[in-house]
């Protein structure tokens, strides 16, 4: 019998079925188990099946895995709901028989637990378990004792082991190795009731009770049991291992058919499986498929097809059709997993594919086998696992494409692998987690579930980077090959096919895998051509061509496809991946540059690329690869040349070939279908299947269109060799290439939507936070909204759920229905809802972008709209887009909104600036498009549009004015001030022209004032102070200008940038008075400690404008405020405040010194001007109002300050400042006179310079001398080791000048000494000497005061030499005696006598007398002049008397006697000398 095989469909995984988390329930050990049970068989593979219950149906899949033979996994899902997140695992006490049945619970009170589960262990213990809805089970759930019933089906040791099981809602049938069959009424009768257990035997229609041994002949072991219903009769089909088939009527437990299917029994041949189905063409026919294996020949298996004819009457009669069919199962397809019979179709699931056989064909001599590609092949192809050289091709082609940027090769290769690894259908949650664990990356469930797409990429890249030994493309490629191989092996191991899912109602077919569930779809027409199934569908394809000569065109088309296939195989699977990646990387890598570079590889091969990596590959390996590639290239060139010549010969001309290609390109264009979009789309299994299937179709269509593009480009490059004319080449370039580029773009966008993961919403995104509240309470929308950012939740789901309702199947879709839903979805993406045929697909991109914008998919919107914009500007349709209702403006507007949103998504630096600049560019372009006003006003609110408030036709200028203002507000709301400023300036340009339209209700001044105020605000926020100033002076609205100026000053003050006001950079033309008034208003209401202080700004501002008096007034007012409020508010900072006061006074003095002396004065501020505690809220009045209201009072209370008064205050403030540094508190009230106590305090603190400064400033004449005497007396006392009470000073000075034991000053009881002295001396004596020498010119008697004070304090003190020398106004050797100034030797002589220092007094007198007597001859004449010599004779007499008194009293008698004799001798000689001199004078006179 002839047989042909063709590819008819593909497996489509259900999104979410790989992420099910199971709730585990455990069953206790059964008490019904028998100790003598036979040894249970060992499971050899994973098994699974499906039970379908209800309408619309619920699908219950169950699996028993070889790794956990005692665990039954159950999942429940529906076609019109989302795939559940939880499943159920029931843990049995022992390994399970590969059987389970889930059915509806028909018992009473079954609403709480609506389902029943039949299962049996390998030891023969059967279970009936009542189940709730699977989604109701949680981690804390457990089975109650009344939720299950168990029964041992093998109570007697002589019975054979169970070999087959079947069941319905109330019945379980067990077939055994001894050929017997037992029926158990589980759930209906009590186990002890009669009839609970019945055995089906040939010798008794009613059977016998359990335990009675049968004496009939023994039957072969039961291999399979099937319960099926025909004509409301429930029949049991029993297949024995020897080929015996028996059919039983379960209503009366009678056998109605028996036949041996084995024609010639042979050793090792075993019948193992039977499938039963209905024949739709004949309702009285029962179709059967029986699987027979020959154990003697490995891998030999045959499926035989039979027909039983059913007839009813008094009894049921079955008649076997003698004609049979046999289907041989080839070993190359792998082991058989499952077979199912449904709707005259036999489905055979094997390891390497799914095959569907038509049971009844019109031509019985030929039957077709339709293959369905499993997901394993798709995953292998995407991860370059199918061919050894496919991944190497990726590297070498990347070298060719990225020849100008070699450093981008490794990231490019990694990007390709990442994209394919996370593709829907390839990405599997559990597989990736296991693979990462193999590379020492461990995650908890919560950690892995929280990973978004970006998180997964980062984890995978970290593994690759860790594995890379050297940072080279070959090392990176090798790491990816290792990782993907591990991933693929884990995928195959984790997703082993367990069984088939068949819905006989809809003919839906699916595959139950170990960790997922999938369905099957039919191939598209183009897929049938690409995958080599054109013989079956060639007529359908050619019927769509324009030409009537369909046979010739079919032949030409097939040869064209052969050429396409040859070229595609030469480039390998890497070429589409590289081209797709270039589309994603546009514009950094233009896809237009990729095609020529790929074709260049067909001319030169990989030699240049491999030469760069000889050191890594090794010379031998590189040489072998180069030779191999060179052979391939030569063979390709020859084959392609011959194929093209044969193609042209068959079509007769190249124009005919191009015509067929053009027809084929039209065939590639997505077809348009009508849509029913009334219902709201929800996230369902049907939608998940549609999205996944769409991605598969789009991939094939995209790659097919790319292959045609490559062929056309190859024809152009080889035109001279194959004989193409210039006209034909031009047709290719100008007509066919643009057409295929558009087709590629369309399928690329469909593929992009179907495979690109959605973006996860940002936490700070308000819209996403609002969405998370789920105010509408829609559970389905809440569930899919949580999926944003996950790899399996692509953009297509958002489109289906947001605008296109998508398919909503109650049942799971059959292959054709699923294919139809893909066509409708692709049609909706390209053509939209409109009935009219659009000029281009891109008109629908606006609606798609709006849906994506609603859910924060900004990157996707940017990519799609940028792609459309680029394509539109490249093509000649630009003009039509601009004039076609403003659609282009809408596109640009949405693109600008997208750029703004992206800039807010965590971007920084140049990336953010680039997004903002792109948004500005888009908005300006959108405003310039014709018809933009009408188009943009129709946008919904989520597009960021605020309606303009007018509906009539407006002028372009008025439209731009409003649009620019809207853009300005959008940027302002997002703190993008520079962009907002651009639109404010652009709006200003439109104001004058827009006024003529009559739309504006405001005056031009008001509009311009508002816009200039915005420009001012933006530039000020950007710290563009000069631009902000220009905006102020450009503002025509005076009120707005004043407000801006005030704001300008306040902001400059707050930012510490007020220097710009005073450095002359800003001219303030016509604004000087306003600026000064604003600063003054700010100063009046600012705290004295504010930095910078407004009064200082006023001072600098006035100085800059040479207004010296006003500058002095402002800075003095600052000093005055500091005096009152500074000390009051912050006593701890008193010294700093005093320093500030000094600076202010100094500045005021300096300013007044620049004024003519006649005008060098300022007004003294009134007390209430600065004594008030700064009011934060006070009515602002002008200077004129203030002067008019307070004129009389000001004249009465105001005084004037000149430089002298300011200097007085400066000196007193300086004294107060220095005292504060010494921790002495003092202040002054008036500046005309200085209090005496300040001098005392300054002296106490050793602040002598300041004390003398105050004295010289405020005292004159005798008062000055008295103050100097007081100060030096106090200073002298500090020099005495033992200070006595001062002589001649007041009580206050005496009380203040006390010393501690360390000879240091104590001020107000503080143990800490004052700061370092201001004088140069390092001791009190040096200080006293220094100041006495300096100030004795002001008062000549000061040395006398000092000596008197010292001797009064200590009469025995040794006067310093420098002090004694100050008394020698005339030196003793001059012979002039003891005369001189107030501080003469006679004064010192007197002090010695007054304080009992007779020795010093005598020595002093003797010195001068001896000096008088020992003059040189030249000086004698001067001595003889009248009154030339003077001695204090009265004091000498007093000294004589004191010495005599001392002798008389007996005090120091010897010393006194000695002094008296010296004094007497000196006086005698002196008097004698005087007599001689007198005689000489008389002689000279006479």
TrEMBL record:
The keyword rRNA processing does not apply. GO terms for cellular component: nuclear pore. Residues 917-1154 form the NUP160 middle TPR domain. Residues 545-736 form the NUP160 helical domain. It is found in: Nucleus. InterPro entries: Beta-prop_Nup120_160, Nucleoporin_Nup160, NUP160_hel_plant, TPR_NUP160_C, TPR_NUP160_M, WD40_repeat_dom_sf. Residues 1204-1464 form the NUP160 C-terminal TPR domain. Its main location: nucleus. Keywords: Nucleus, Transport. This is Nuclear pore complex protein NUP160 domain-containing protein. Residues 59-527 form the Nucleoporin Nup120/160 beta-propeller domain. One of its GO terms (molecular function) is structural constituent of nuclear pore.
């Amino acid at each position: 019998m002839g047989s042909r095989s063709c590819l008819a469909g593909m497996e489509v995984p259900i999104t979410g079925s790989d992420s099910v988390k199971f709730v585990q329930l455990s069953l206790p050990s059964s008490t019904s188990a028998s100790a003598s049970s036979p040894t249970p068989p060992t499971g050899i593979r994973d098994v699974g099946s499906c039970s379908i219950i209800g309408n619309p149906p619920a699908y219950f899949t169950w699996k028993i895995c070889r790794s956990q033979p005692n665990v039954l996994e159950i999942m429940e899902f529906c076609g019109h709901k989302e795939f559940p997140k939880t499943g159920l695992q029931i843990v049995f006490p022992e390994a399970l028989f590969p059987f389970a049945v889930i059915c509806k619970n028909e018992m009473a009170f079954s609403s709480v637990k609506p389902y029943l589960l039949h299962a049996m262990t390998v030891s023969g213990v059967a279970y009936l378990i009542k189940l709730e809805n699977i989604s109701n089970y949680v981690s804390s759930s457990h089975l109650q004792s009344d939720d299950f019933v168990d029964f041992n089906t093998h109570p007697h040791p002589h019975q054979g082991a169970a070999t087959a099981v079947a069941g319905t809602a109330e019945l379980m049938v067990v077939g055994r190795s001894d050929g017997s069959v037992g029926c158990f009424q589980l759930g209906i009768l009590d186990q002890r009731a009669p009839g609970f257990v019945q055995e089906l035997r040939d010798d008794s229609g009613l059977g016998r009770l359990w335990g009675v041994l049968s004496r009939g002949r023994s039957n072969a072991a039961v291999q399979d049991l099937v319960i099926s219903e025909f004509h409301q009769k429930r029949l049991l089909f029993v297949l024995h291992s020897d080929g015996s088939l028996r059919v039983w009527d379960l209503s009366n437990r009678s056998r109605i058919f028996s036949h041996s299917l084995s024609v010639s029994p042979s050793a090792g041949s075993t019948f193992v499986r039977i499938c039963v189905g209905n024949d739709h063409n004949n309702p009285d026919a029962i179709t059967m498929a029986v699987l027979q294996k020959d154990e003697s020949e490995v891998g030999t298996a045959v499926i035989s097809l039979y027909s039983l004819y059913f007839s009813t009457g008094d009894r049921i009669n079955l008649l076997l059709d003698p004609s049979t069919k046999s289907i041989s199962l080839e070993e190359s397809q792998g082991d058989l997993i499952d077979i199912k019979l449904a709707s005259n179709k036999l489905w055979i699931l094997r390891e390497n594919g799914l095959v569907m056989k038509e049971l009844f064909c019109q031509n019985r001599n030929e039957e077709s086998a339709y293959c369905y590609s499993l997901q394993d092949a798709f995953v292998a192809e995407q991860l370059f696992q199918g061919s050894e050289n496919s991944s190497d091709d990726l590297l070498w082609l990347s070298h060719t494409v990225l020849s100008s940027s070699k450093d981008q090769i490794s990231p490019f290769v990694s990007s390709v692998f990442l994209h394919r690894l996370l593709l829907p259908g390839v990405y599997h949650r559990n597989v990736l987690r296991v693979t990462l664990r193999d590379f020492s990356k461990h995650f908890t469930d919560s950690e892995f579930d929280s990973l978004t797409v970006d998180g997964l990429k980062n984890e995978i890249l970290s593994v690759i980077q860790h594995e890379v030994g050297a940072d080279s493309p070959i090392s990176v490629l090798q790491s990816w090959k290792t990782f993907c191989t591990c991933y693929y092996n884990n995928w195959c191991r984790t997703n082993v096919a367990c069984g088939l899912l068949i819905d006989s109602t809809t003919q839906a077919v699916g595959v139950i895998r170990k960790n997922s569930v999938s369905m099957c779809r039919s191939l598209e027409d183009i897929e049938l051509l690409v995958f080599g199934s054109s013989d079956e569908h060639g007529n359908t394809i050619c019927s769509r061509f324009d030409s009537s000569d369909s046979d010739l065109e079919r032949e030409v088309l097939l040869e064209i496809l052969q050429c396409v296939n040859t070229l595609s195989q030469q480039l390998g699977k890497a070429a589409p991946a590289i081209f797709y990646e270039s589309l994603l990387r546009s514009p950094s890598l233009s896809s237009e540059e990729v095609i020529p570079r790929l074709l260049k590889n067909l001319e030169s091969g990989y030699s240049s690329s491999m030469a760069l990596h000889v050191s890594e590959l090794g010379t031998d390996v590189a040489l072998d690869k180069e030779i191999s590639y060179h052979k391939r290239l030569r063979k390709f060139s020859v084959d392609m040349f011959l194929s093209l010549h044969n193609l042209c010969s068959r079509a007769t001309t190249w124009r005919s070939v191009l015509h067929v290609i053009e027809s084929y390109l039209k065939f590639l264009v997505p077809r348009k279908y009508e849509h029913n979009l009334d219902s709201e789309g929800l996230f369902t299994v049907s939608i998940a299947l549609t999205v996944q299937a769409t991605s598969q179709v789009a991939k094939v269509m995209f790659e097919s269109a790319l292959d045609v593009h490559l062929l056309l480009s190859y024809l152009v490059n080889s035109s001279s060799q194959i004989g193409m004319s210039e006209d034909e080449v031009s047709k290719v370039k100008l007509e066919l290439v643009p057409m295929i580029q558009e087709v590629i773009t369309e399928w690329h966008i469909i593929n992009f939507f179907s495979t690109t993961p959605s973006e996860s919403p940002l936490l700070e995104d308000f819209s996403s936070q609002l969405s998370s509240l789920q105010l509408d309470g829609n559970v389905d929308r809440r569930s899919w909204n949580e999926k944003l950012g996950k790899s399996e939740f692509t953009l297509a789901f958002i489109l289906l759920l947001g605008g296109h309702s998508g398919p909503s199947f109650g049942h799971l879709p059959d292959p054709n229905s699923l294919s139809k839903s893909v066509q409708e979805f692709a049609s909706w993406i390209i053509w939209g809802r409109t009935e009219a045929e659009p000029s281009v697909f891109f008109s629908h991109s606006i609606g798609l972008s709006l849906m994506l914008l609603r859910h924060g998919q900004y990157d996707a919107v940017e990519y799609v709209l940028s792609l459309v914009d680029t394509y539109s500007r490249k093509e000649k349709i630009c003009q039509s887009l601009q004039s076609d209702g403003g659609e282009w403006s809408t596109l640009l507007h949405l693109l600008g909104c997208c750029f703004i949103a992206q800039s807010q998504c965590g971007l920084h630096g140049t990336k953010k600036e680039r997004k903002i600049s792109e948004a500005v560019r888009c908005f300006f372009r959108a405003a310039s498009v014709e018809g933009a006003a009408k188009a943009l006003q129709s946008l919904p609110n989520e597009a960021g549009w605020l309606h303009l408030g007018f509906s009539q036709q407006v002028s372009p200028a008025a439209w731009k004015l409003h649009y620019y203002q809207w853009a300005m507000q959008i940027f302002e709301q997002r703190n993008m001030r520079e962009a907002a400023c651009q639109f404010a300036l652009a709006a200003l340009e439109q104001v004058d022209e827009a006024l003529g339209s009559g739309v504006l209700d405001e005056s031009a001044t008001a509009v311009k004032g508002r816009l200039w105020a915005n420009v001012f605000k933006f530039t000020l926020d950007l710290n563009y102070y000069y631009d902000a100033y220009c905006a102020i002076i450009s503002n025509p609205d005076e009120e707005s200008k004043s407000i801006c100026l005030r704001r300008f000053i306040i902001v400059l003050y707050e930012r510490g940038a007020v220097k710009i006001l005073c450095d002359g950079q800003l001219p303030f033309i016509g604004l000087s008075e306003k600026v000064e008034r604003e600063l003054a208003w700010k100063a009046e209401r600012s705290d004295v400690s504010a930095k910078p202080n407004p009064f200082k700004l006023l001072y600098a501002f006035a100085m800059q404008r040479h207004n010296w008096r006003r500058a002095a007034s402002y800075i003095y007012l600052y000093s005055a405020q500091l005096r009152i409020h500074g000390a009051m508010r912050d006593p701890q900072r008193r010294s700093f405040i005093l320093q500030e006061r000094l600076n202010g006074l100094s500045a005021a003095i300096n300013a007044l010194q620049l004024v003519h002396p006649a005008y060098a004065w300022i007004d003294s501020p009134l007390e209430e001007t600065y004594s008030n505690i700064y009011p934060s809220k006070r009515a602002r009045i002008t200077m004129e109002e203030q002067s008019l209201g307070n004129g009389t009072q000001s004249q009465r209370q105001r005084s004037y300050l000149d430089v002298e008064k300011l200097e007085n205050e400066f000196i007193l403030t300086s004294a107060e400042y220095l005292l504060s540094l010494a921790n002495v508190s003092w202040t002054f009230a008036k500046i005309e006179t200085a209090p005496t106590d300040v001098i005392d305090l300054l002296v106490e603190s050793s602040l002598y310079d300041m004390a003398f400064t105050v004295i010289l400033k405020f005292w004159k004449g005798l008062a000055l001398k008295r103050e100097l005497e007081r100060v030096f007396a106090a200073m002298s006392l500090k020099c005495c080791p033992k200070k006595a009470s001062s002589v001649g000073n007041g009580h206050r000075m005496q009380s203040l000048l006390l010393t501690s034991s360390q000879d240091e000053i104590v001020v107000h009881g503080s143990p800490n000494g004052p700061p370092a002295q201001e004088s140069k001396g390092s001791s009190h004596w040096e200080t006293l000497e220094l100041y006495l020498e300096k100030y004795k010119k002001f008062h000549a008697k000061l040395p006398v005061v000092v000596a008197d004070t010292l001797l009064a304090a200590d009469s025995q003190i040794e006067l310093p030499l420098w002090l004694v020398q100050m008394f020698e106004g005339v030196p003793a050797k001059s012979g002039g005696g003891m005369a001189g100034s107030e501080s003469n030797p006679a004064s010192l002589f007197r002090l010695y006598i007054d304080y009992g220092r007779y020795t010093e007094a005598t020595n002093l007198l003797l010195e001068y007398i001896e000096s008088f007597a020992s003059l040189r001859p030249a000086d004698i004449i001067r001595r003889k002049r009248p009154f030339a010599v003077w001695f204090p004779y009265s004091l000498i007499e007093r000294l004589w008397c004191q010495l005599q008194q001392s002798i008389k009293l007996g005090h120091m008698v010897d010393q006194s006697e000695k002094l008296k004799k010296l004094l007497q001798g000196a006086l005698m000689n002196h008097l004698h000398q005087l007599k001689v001199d007198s005689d000489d004078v008389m002689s000279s006179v006479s």
